[in-house]
Amino acid sequence: MTLIVCESLVRIYQTGPVEVQALQGLDLVVEKGEMVAVVGASGSGKSTLLSILAGVDAPTAGRAQVEQWDLLGMSRADRVRYRRHTVGFVRQQTASNLIPYLTARQMVDLPMTAARTPAGVRKQRSGELLEALGVAAFADRKPGQLSGGQQMRVAIAVALANQPHVLLADEPTGELDTATSAEVFGALRDVNRDLGVTVVVVTHDPAVSGQVERTVAIRDGRTSSEVLRRTATADDGNTHVIAEEYAVMDRAGRIQVPRDYREALALTRRVRLALEPDHITIRPDA
Ligand SMILES: Nc1ncnc2c1ncn2[C@@H]1O[C@H](COP(=O)(O)OP(=O)(O)OP(=O)(O)O)[C@@H](O)[C@H]1O
């Protein structure tokens, strides 16, 4: 069951005469129930991708679909509905997710009030969510009375208030120390596993991306490679994690050969391709 499809996604920002191509034909498919980490250097387009998926920003060209929603051709009313019910979004700066004068419970309540959820349901659900994220004890505290990790967990609870099918998190552990970051990441995994929410998380943190089954790397506004991890059991009964890196091929059949491979064999403009029974070889031109 495919939940998110991005095909040849392009986002161009125009500031005066300057044009920045933040996304340059990005391809991404996410299945329902997956937890995917998106990694890439600063400026590679990760936040742009997440803002588009969150319905906050609109793509310039290409295709972006989440469930039945076409993110390029959505009306304003549909966009509001989409943002309210289909996706939950946790922004990069912890503080920007929270309202300083409201308590944790009031903040989780707010999106449900906007969606006209009956008071009884709101009360029960905010209690359950704060409990699920391990912050029930701080329900009556305001953001200033919470640690960074607790604030982030409250922000996740707020994002989940209207029971979205997708949770998008932009660098949720970026401002946290290692131990707190592991805790917050654990909370995201619980949300994915226990509530069945599909999670897409942008991160710089290799420790974070090392803990998900699938990591997608973005380079220059395109998906460049993916790492899939699975747990295998050896003959001695011990389990270990096997990580395999894949290149991503777009619809036109283009793949990017990693720089170290190109340099090792001095591959430049032209290469020889040969189809073998079960693989393809790439050789230097000479
Ligand atoms: N609103 C905007 N106006 C103009 N240019 C923008 C805007 N938002 C992003 N960009 C540019 O688009 C490119 C991609 O930015 P983006 O924030 O998506 O990258 P990122 O991978 O999330 O980076 P970081 O890890 O530093 O947050 C950058 O060159 C950035 O300067």
From TrEMBL:
One of its GO terms (molecular function) is ATP binding. Keywords: ATP-binding, DNA-binding, Nucleotide-binding, Transport. Transmembrane segments: none annotated. Residues 244-286 form the SpoVT-AbrB domain. InterPro entries: AAA+_ATPase, ABC_transporter-like_ATP-bd, ABC_transporter-like_CS, ABC_transpr_LolD-like, MacB-like_ATP-bd, P-loop_NTPase, SpoVT-AbrB_dom. Residues 4-245 form the ABC transporter domain. Pfam families: ABC_tran. It comes from the Bacteria. SUPFAM superfamilies: P-loop containing nucleoside triphosphate hydrolases. The keyword Nucleotide-binding applies. PANTHER family: ABC TRANSPORTER RELATED, IMPORT ATP-BINDING PROTEIN. This is ABC transporter ATP-binding protein. It comes from Paractinoplanes aksuensis.
